[in-house]
């Protein structure tokens, strides 16, 4: 089986469009259509349902997509490793970082890494931990920062930081006078939360399920400055890492009575090739944590 039709097939499946796939691949649409027809003839299977303006995978197409992703990922890994052995690549690091860490923990690390390795290309994607984990599993990222109580079997990870989630309140809030906050007291308040998929939100949802409480979420936003402003104005409370509020005199961070600790890890695909550029980033992060 030729590899090129598999790349065409995967692009079409992920874009749900022959036209969009052709644009992404910079290939004429008739060439892609012909390649897929030949692939279907070779397999003696129909891979796509073709509607007037939409396409979708058949059951056979869905199964081929799983194999296609594994095959193309293995080929790309092999090519990268061979190019590195010949010294032909400059090196690229694609790392996904949650917003809270991207704003407050990683900037000096990223700048120091670029200073040590100016020849490497560094691409940083911000997002929720669940989104980043999925991108990592789909090979859209080389590395990702995750918070996982149970590490998926497909990933390997190294913990680099342990941080406590703190109840965050305005300095004149009644809870600000307490040494610690119970879960019941926390869930009685109006909450300002990240949207679902972010580790900040997952922690709170997990606590709510464990204590059988219903969170009273009055604001949802992924913008940290907005969360801090809403809390500071007394319209709700939140939970944030200590690093986010340590230089903000108007906000108070309080531990839960039963402290909530997060183990932050850098992860990569267990079955993937960790390039020398990515290994350098992992080593650098662990060295500076």
Automatic annotation (TrEMBL):
Organism: Pontibacterium sinense
InterPro entries linked to this entry: HTH-type_LysR_regulators, LysR_HTH_N, LysR_subst-bd, WH-like_DNA-bd_sf, WH_DNA-bd_sf
Family: Belongs to the LysR transcriptional regulatory family.
Keywords of the record: DNA-binding, Transcription, Transcription regulation
UniProt key word Transcription regulation: yes
Protein name: LysR family transcriptional regulator
Superkingdom field: Bacteria
Gene Ontology CC terms: cytosol
């Amino acid at each position: 089986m030729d590899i090129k039709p598999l790349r065409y097939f995967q692009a079409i499946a992920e874009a749900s469009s022959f036209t969009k796939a052709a644009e992404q691949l910079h290939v004429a649409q008739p060439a892609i259509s012909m390649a897929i027809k030949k692939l279907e003839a070779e397999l003696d299977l129909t891979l796509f349902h073709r509607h007037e303006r939409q396409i979708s995978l058949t059951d056979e197409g869905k199964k081929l997509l799983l194999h296609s992703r594994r095959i193309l990922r293995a080929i790309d890994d092999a090519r990268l490793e061979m190019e590195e052995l010949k010294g032909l690549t400059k090196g690229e690091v694609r790392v996904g970082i949650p917003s809270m860490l991207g704003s407050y923990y990683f900037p000096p690390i990223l700048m120091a890494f670029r200073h040590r390795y100016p020849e490497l290309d560094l691409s940083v994607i911000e997002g929720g931990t669940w989104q980043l984990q999925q991108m990592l599993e789909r090979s859209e990222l080389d590395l990702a920062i995750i918070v996982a109580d149970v590490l998926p079997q497909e990933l390997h990870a190294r913990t680099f930081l342990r941080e406590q989630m703190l109840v965050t309140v305005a300095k004149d809030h009644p809870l600000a006078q307490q040494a610690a906050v119970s879960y019941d007291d926390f869930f009685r308040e109006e909450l300002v939360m990240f949207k679902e998929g972010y580790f900040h939100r997952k922690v709170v949802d997990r606590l709510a399920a464990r204590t059988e409480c219903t969170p009273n979420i009055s604001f949802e936003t992924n913008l940290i400055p907005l969360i801090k402003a809403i809390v500071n104005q007394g319209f709700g409370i939140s939970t944030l890492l200590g690093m986010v509020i340590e230089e903000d005199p108007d906000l108070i961070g309080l531990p839960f009575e039963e402290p909530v600790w997060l183990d932050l890890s850098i992860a990569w695909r267990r079955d993937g090739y960790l390039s020398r550029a990515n290994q350098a980033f992992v080593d650098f992060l662990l060295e500076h944590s």
